[in-house]
Amino acid sequence: MALKVEPILPHFGAECSGLDLTKPLSAEELKEVTDAMDKWGVTVWRNTGLTDEQHVEFSRNFGYLERVPKRPDGQKMRLPYRELFDASNLNLEGEITTDPAAVEYRKGDRLWHTDSAFLEKRTSYSLLLAHITPPPGVGGETWFADTRTAYDDLSQEMKDRIEGLVSINSLWWSRKKAGADVSEEEILERPLARHPIVHTHKGSGRKAIFIAAHTMDIEGMEGPEGRQLIEDLIAHITQDKYTFKVAWNPGDMVIWDNLCTMHRGAEYDYTAYKRDMRRTTVREGTEPHTMDTGDDPYTALFARSPKAVDINSARDAGR
């Protein structure tokens, strides 16, 4: 069966069906998927039936998969593969976590962001699969924003202003913005990633804005001026006409291209409802089925987590 694509917005987002993602796809089928991603930026796949193993294997079609931080030998992990990032509100025993560091860390996911913008090596696709979702009507959706059409609609004056600018990004900045007790001094002591604010999206040839909650400053600008520009751009991109939300059911998967989108989690009662979401993360510019790249940026990053959002230490304590 051929891929069926139903647009969500005129230029952004599509519901896709017609392919069995639990089985190996042909080269032609994979091209249908990447063509849909290049055109729509976000694709929604309902009731996929994917297991953890199949989720990882399908994701490998698009490049090298980043890995969660290494755990010392013998220490438990909730998920069976390092390629699965835990985007849930659950602890190691599968219950709703009450650990303050984990709660503070996850608040940052409610801000508009792009995955891994805090690393020098950017993420292309994220593939998020729902396992347990809150009941309908209580929140917990995921919102997406179109950074290509938003760029197209900028005034020429603004396009000229931001062309060539470079942003400074930190994971810990987004956590501070979400309310965590992290000082700017702690952020500046840790690695920062620099990225052009405007880039050409390879798959479509269209220009896109690459900026979001991890973006702390702009090189060459005074702090207040740069931060105001960041907020102005985020406000522009996240207008209603550029955004939509996905309501989840178990088995649903959404693929988005971080190089032409932003996203955020919607609010819900974190303490009342389990939300088990698992994400694979594809490194930009890598070949399909690459098993190792010889580096491990997430282990290095989280080894220096500020105390207020140190989720690794919380898990070490068995919380």
Describe this structure in words.
- The protein is α+β, with helices and mostly antiparallel strands.
- Helix content is 26%, strand content 23%.
- The chain has helices at residues 27-40, 52-59, 100-107, 147-152, 156-162, 171-177, 184-188, 223-237, 297-302, 311-316; strands at residues 4-9, 12-17, 42-45, 85-86, 123-132, 142-146, 166-169, 193-196, 198-200, 207-209, 215-218, 243-246, 253-257, 261-265, 276-283.
- It has a seven-stranded mixed β-sheet, with helices on one face. A three-stranded antiparallel β-sheet has the order 12-6-14.
- It starts with a strand and ends with a helix.
Relative helix content: 25-40%
Strand content: 15-25%
> Could you give the order of the helices and strands?
EEHEHEHEEHHEHHEEEEHEEEEHH
Structural class: alpha+beta
User: How many domains make up the coordinates?
Assistant: 1
Summarize the main sheet. 7 strands, mixed
Report the mean per-residue pLDDT as an integer: 95
Give me the number of helical elements: 10
Tell me the distance between the termini: 47 Å
Unreliable runs:
315-319
Number of strands: 15
Apparent shape: globular
* CATH level-1 class: Alpha Beta
Q: Provide the CATH architecture.
A: 4-Layer Sandwich
Taking strands numbered 1, 2, ... along the chain, how are they ordered across the largest sheet? 1-2-3-13-5-15-4
CATH superfamily: Clavaminate synthase-like
Radius of gyration from CA coordinates: 19 Å
CATH topology title? Double-stranded beta-helix
